[in-house]
Amino acid sequence: MNSTLRSRCAKAIGAGALSVALLSAGTAGAFAASPSAASPRPKPIMTSSAKPTGTSTAKPTGTSTAKPSKSGSPMANGSITARVSKVQVKPGQSVTFTGRAKGVKVGTKVVLLHMHNGKWTPLKSSTVLKNGSSYSLVTKFNNKGKEQLRVMAGKIVSPTVVVTVK
Predict the structure, then answer these.
(1) Is this structure's pTM higher than 0.70?
(2) Pick from 116, 119, 125, 118: which is nearest to 151 by CA?
């Protein structure tokens, strides 16, 4: 009877060891087959950068306010407003641009820009920010048509303002 008991114990231990071995192999095989463990995920590679298209349409307004942007636009960490004295003028008539800037040092040069052949080009009219971060620019337009304008202080620009010269 002793030999039968030993034989049964040996069989049970052998069966238990075989079960553990099969379970371990099955778990390892299942882990190896899972998609997350198969290979590390590839990192995206940027092949080109976004470029502005310059195809925006401007609507005539008398006032506008710039809002700070988190993207890499010219409006870095501040804002500037642009208000025009007249939306419609005759050729040679003076137009005054006024506004305030936030996040720009007093004494910073303020330049009036206009859209010419799809690019923003500076006009001869410029000034500096006064105490209170305000400015005032006066200019004249001689050519008839719609002028798209904006004001730039440092790297911060205002939204577009349209003046019609009739």
Answers:
(1) no
(2) 125
